[in-house]
């Protein structure tokens, strides 16, 4: 079978949440024997090395330019979708069994004359209306706040338009899937967990008292999370012997001066590291102190895969299905957050039991290949999908 995957960003290297999800799915579909074509309308042109890496799984890549102009700010379509308007005209084959849209941003592809709407599946990375409203709460920049609020309203209207053209949905968030299913029971919708390498879990050593946060440092909700931790939890942690707070992520060359207002004693920042492996290995536990957001915070799942127990706010584990005190520890109050970190510091056996439990949960419930294969079979039950060995 043949599928077109439409992306708002080149999916490789898989160095942030959406790319991790999309790239993992591309590899799964290739393993299931699909012929894959990509249509990408991103901000930056991929390097030859990245194109070559993708060619191991993808037969053809179609690139189009992402273009923004000031007038788009007043358009009824969200700027994130409007800037990808070239997807309407991108030259693609017309004989795809399915067209997989990686998020609402690529909405313009639905106006491409070679796309059959009955073949379209939408991967819902976030409820974008909720997500942009959360970004508005996270930033103090007045212009950014206005932009996020406007995009939120536009995405709410766009989602209604999507329902007129798309009836097949794959949600990354179990919470958002259940909400959508209640509201739109006639749509073919399913919770599809993010891809997890089920045979490739790491084990923590619980030696160094390093608290780790990894996330895109240019995103206002991640900045807000780090700032909340530095302002409220970090001062309490400084009395713990050998404690360090390790922050890592891609800054997109934006200034990190927003960190300077806090006490950075025992804080180590890795700006746009080439690899996260050693950072995960150095950690004792992972914190996800998100205050605002939507969808699934893949940083929580990735930390568990890499052998770190997770302490999170309620927002940080939404949609994952993980259970408080069984797979993850949840705290929204700074003092409670601190006490839960200290408890794991003082009880490495509890830390190991927590991460073992969470990894077992992922093994049982996060089989991306099995769920995706089953969904496709439900759409085309007479077609035998042959897995590539």
TrEMBL record:
It comes from the Bacteria. This is Glycosyltransferase. One of its GO terms (molecular function) is transferase activity. It comes from Cohnella luojiensis. Signal peptide: none annotated. PANTHER family: GLYCOSYLTRANSFERASE (PTHR12526). The lineage of its organism: Bacteria, Bacillati, Bacillota, Bacilli, Bacillales. Pfam families: Glyco_trans_1_4. Keywords: Transferase.
């Amino acid at each position: 079978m043949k599928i077109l995957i439409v992306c708002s960003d080149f999916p490789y290297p898989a160095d942030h949440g959406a790319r991790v999800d999309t790239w993992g799915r591309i590899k799964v579909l290739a393993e299931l024997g699909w012929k894959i074509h990509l249509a990408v309308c991103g901000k930056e042109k991929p390097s030859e090395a990245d194109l070559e890496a993708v060619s191991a799984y993808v037969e053809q890549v179609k690139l189009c330019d992402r273009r923004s102009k000031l007038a788009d700010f007043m358009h009824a379509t969200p700027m994130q979708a409007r800037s990808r308007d070239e997807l309407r005209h991108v030259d693609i084959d017309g004989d795809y069994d399915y067209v997989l849209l990686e998020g609402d941003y690529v909405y313009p592809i639905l106006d491409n004359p070679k796309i059959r709407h009955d073949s379209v599946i939408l991967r819902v990375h976030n409820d974008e209306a909720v997500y942009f409203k959360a970004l508005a709460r996270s930033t103090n920049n007045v212009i950014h706040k206005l932009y996020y609020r406007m995009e939120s309203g536009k995405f709410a209207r766009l989602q209604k338009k999507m329902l007129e053209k798309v009836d097949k949905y794959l949600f990354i968030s179990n919470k958002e899937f259940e909400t959508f299913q209640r509201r739109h029971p006639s749509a073919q919708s399913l919770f599809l967990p993010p891809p997890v390498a089920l045979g490739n879990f790491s084990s923590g050593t619980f030696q160094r008292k390093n608290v780790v946060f990894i996330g895109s440092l240019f995103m206002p909700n991640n900045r807000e999370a780090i700032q909340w931790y530095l302002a409220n939890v970090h001062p309490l942690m400084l009395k713990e012997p050998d404690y360090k707070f390790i922050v890592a992520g891609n800054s997109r060359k934006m200034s990190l001066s927003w960190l300077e207002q806090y006490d950075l004693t025992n804080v180590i920042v890795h700006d746009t590291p080439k690899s996260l492996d050693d950072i995960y290995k150095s950690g004792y536990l992972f914190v996800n102190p998100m205050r605002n957001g939507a969808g699934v915070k893949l940083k929580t799942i990735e930390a568990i895969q890499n052998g770190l127990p997770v302490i999170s706010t309620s927002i940080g584990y939404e949609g994952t299905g993980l259970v408080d005190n069984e797979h993850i520890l949840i705290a929204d109050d700074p003092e409670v957050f601190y006490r839960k970190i200290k408890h794991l510091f003082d009880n490495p056996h509890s830390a190991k039991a927590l991460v073992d439990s969470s990894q077992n949960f992922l093994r049982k419930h996060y089989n991306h290949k099995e769920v995706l294969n089953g969904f496709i079979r439900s759409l085309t039950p007479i077609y035998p999908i042959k897995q590539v060995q």
